[in-house]
Amino acid sequence: MNVLVVGAGSMGEWFARTMRDHTDATLAFTDTDSDAARRAAEAVGGRAVPTDTDGPFDVICIAVPMPVAEVAIEEYAPRATEAIVDVTGSMAAPLSAMAAAAPETQRASLHPLFAPENAPGNVAVVTDAGGDAVDVVVGALAAAGNDTFETTPEEHDEAMETVQAGAHAAVLAYALAAADVPERFHTPVSAGMADLVEQVTGGDAHVYADIQETFEGADRVAEAARRLADADRDGFAELYETLS
């Protein structure tokens, strides 16, 4: 199987390494940053190819930031002979773009629900048009120890509003609001929040910005915080008891 990974970031490299370790795939990378493509290819024993490469490739994996996913799919999908998949993080828009650009090709959207350095973990899967090539890809993810589960684009994207946009906004809002206090004053709750702040702020700012731009969960967090701030004693207790 001849695989092209479009996007030489950490997620693209993770996908390529998984395919290398659990299939007989030969791997190629392309990226607007040719040096990044070369480094990723060297890391997994593949090759770097220019962005205007003609291919064809058996499987193409789109591993670019969410805001440019549809553009990349439109450009590269016609070069896939068997399947096109993406690991961009959203599902509805990429799958729609795949169906438009490669209607006769196997198609699937894959979302690893973890940073690559924390693999293995849960991987959401939507198989829009299945077949042997998609089965090989999903099988490689499972063989790497990941828990793959089928969902729908709507269910996935709605869930991301809570588990990504909302969760990240809540953690970052706490970080923005928190005063700098000596560690000896921390409670188990505040210490746990501090750990979450460290985890979230240890990532790529642009990735987190893409999540906030794509999904709408942050607005609900802001509204909830305002409800708590505006509540009187009895109202606060009522909200607390509802959550309990």
Query: Helix and strand string, N-terminal first?
Result: EHEHEEHEHEEHEHHHHH
Radius of gyration using CA atoms only: 21 Å
Task: Indicate the percent of residues in helices.
Answer: 40-55%
The biggest beta sheet is recorded as:
8 strands, mixed
Distance between the termini: 52 Å
Tell me the count of domains.
Answer: 2
CATH superfamily of the largest domain: NAD(P)-binding Rossmann-like Domain
Q: How many extended strands?
A: 8
Mean pLDDT: 96
The CATH class of the largest domain is identified as Alpha Beta
Tell me briefly what this model is.
It contains ten helices and eight strands. It is of the alpha/beta class and 244 residues long.
Written description of the protein model:
One of its GO terms (molecular function) is prephenate dehydrogenase (NADP+) activity. It comes from Haloarcula limicola. This is Prephenate dehydrogenase/arogenate dehydrogenase family protein. With 244 residues, the protein is an alpha/beta fold. It folds into two domains: 150 residues, 3-Layer(aba) Sandwich (Rossmann fold); 89 residues. It has an eight-stranded mixed sheet, sandwiched between helices. Helix 3 packs parallel to helix 4, helix 6 packs across helix 8 and helix 6 packs across helix 9. The longest helix has 25 residues.
